[in-house]
């Protein structure tokens, strides 16, 4: 996965993924990013792009934290907030799988799907320039059908984020 495009190449990836209760946070922990001023699309927000970079490289806890910085600043009951709530819960679901906790992973996955379906009803299937429904189908294979991803590559957000 090292060949994946980094949207924020100046920010190094952590040395290892943080697994709560199993290891400590990586020594490489860049300073928190600030979200955009709202005049730019969310797809250009540095916290969103950092979350994509982290997610695509298997840093699910860290992606959750990056996207949460946007989520807490969005107005309640908006499709954008539901979209980020869903992304955060997808990350948490994959983290739970990695921690060997399939039951909580499935619960988080189901909640993520509800949020993302509600968001795509309002924002369309490609709110960031990639097909969110297709991406969810990749993840569903891991979370529901397989529970254990085995040798399959982890799902990634397409490099066509716009």
Summarize the structure.
The protein is mainly alpha-helical and 162 residues long.
Set down the secondary structure blueprint.
Elements: H1 46-56, H2 60-71, H3 79-98, H4 102-123, H5 132-146
Characterise the protein shown here.
This protein has 5 helices and no strands. The protein has a domain at 42-146: TTHA0068-like (Hyaluronidase domain-like), CATH 1.10.3450.10. The protein has helices at 46-56, 60-71, 79-98, 102-123, 132-146. By secondary structure, the chain is mainly alpha-helical. The longest helix has 22 residues, at 102-123.
Percent range for β-strand residues: under 5%
Q: Report the structural category.
A: mainly alpha
| Number of discrete helical segments | 5
CATH level 1 name of the domain at 42-146: Mainly Alpha
Largest sheet: none
Q: Rg to the nearest angstrom?
A: 15 Å
Q: Under the CATH scheme, which architecture of the domain at 42-146 would be assigned? A: Orthogonal Bundle
CA(first)-CA(last) distance:
21 Å
Silhouette: globular
Descriptive tags:
single chain; mainly alpha; 5 helices; 0% strand
């Amino acid at each position: 996965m090292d060949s994946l495009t980094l949207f924020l190449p100046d920010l190094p990836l952590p040395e290892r993924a943080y697994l709560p209760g199993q290891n400590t946070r990586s020594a490489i922990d860049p300073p928190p990013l600030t979200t955009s001023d709202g005049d730019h699309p969310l797809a250009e927000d540095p916290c969103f792009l950092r979350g994509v970079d982290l997610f695509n490289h298997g840093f699910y806890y860290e992606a959750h934290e990056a996207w949460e910085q946007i989520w807490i600043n969005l107005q309640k009951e908006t499709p954008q907030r539901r979209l980020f709530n869903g992304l955060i819960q997808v990350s948490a679901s994959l983290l739970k799988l990695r921690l060997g906790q399939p039951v909580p992973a499935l619960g988080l996955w189901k909640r993520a799907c509800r949020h993302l379906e509600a968001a795509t009803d309002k924002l369309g299937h490609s709110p960031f320039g990639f097909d969110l429904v297709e991406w969810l189908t990749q993840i569903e294979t891991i979370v529901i059908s397989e529970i254990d991803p085995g040798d399959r590559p982890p799902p990634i957000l397409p490099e066509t984020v716009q």
